[in-house]
Amino acid sequence: MKKLISAIALCSMALVSKAQLNKADDIKKALATTNKDTVAWVYGGFITIGMNEGFLHNWAAGGELASFSANGIFSGHLDHLSHREIWSNNLDISYGLNYNYSTSFIPRKTDDRIDFTSKYGKRIDTNGNFFASALFNFKSQITDGYDYTLPDWPHHPPSSKFMSPGYFTLAAGVEYRQGSDVSLFVSPIAARLTVADKYFTSLTPQGAFGIDYGKTQKYEFGAYVSGRYSTKLSKSVRYKTRLDLYSNYLAKDTKDSLGNVVKRDNPGNVAILFDNLFDIKLGKYVNLAVGATLIYDNNLPYNKYDATGTLKKDPGVDMGWVQLKQIFTFGIEYKF
Description:
With 336 residues, the chain is mainly beta. It is built from two helices and 14 strands; from the N terminus they run H-E-E-E-E-E-E-E-H-E-E-E-E-E-E-E.
């Protein structure tokens, strides 16, 4: 009899646990598209790791004798809802390396990005989707960057590193949001700080990363708009996009150490970040990620010539100051 009672109790506990889990899943799905009056933590995202390897010996068609490349993507969000208040956090990290026999397997970066956004908002009306919000954003990279167009690039100093540059944005405004999938934040008062090591800003009379010669930081004050959208196009395909716009009220012509105008700027020269990612599920733990990021920033001009004065062998030379990054990752994915 005791065994029977114990068995019934265990079954009951299992059913209750399953019901609670299903309930939690249902709440999580509902909160992705709605702003319910509740107290809860909501999280989600994915980690993707992709690798490619090749080896050739006496291969008639020729090619790289041995190569290996690896790249990873992390994209996640953590939100806390407490009745009329929402605290949302988004973190995107990507990194990639390529190794080739012809370059003595010295790694070359193919991707490197850190992008973190934290927002706190309080619902303006009882049942609406508008929030009075404050936003903090941080952008930088993980490891040193080099100009690989130089024949002996390993013997040259890096062209960038962690926190050189580093970007900080602090803004206050109004946000329209529908759960975790739709967000549009508009701020007429946004401060942006760019920092970098004095070494990089002292290399040329123009400075670096928009920072004047010999300085370590640049302060901007202006208007900021940030929109995010995520949706499932099908059962196995999810699309995420983001558009950031920033106008600097203080923008003006930049002069070098000799007083010559080296860059013209004004508040209408809007900085743009346009991010797109397709996450395609091919199996339980296998996926394909295809993405493209476009950036335009007047603080980051494009020079057609390398450090030696030679025209760069860049297939995108005609794109000018536009920055473009494209990724194609096939590998293992874990969703949470």
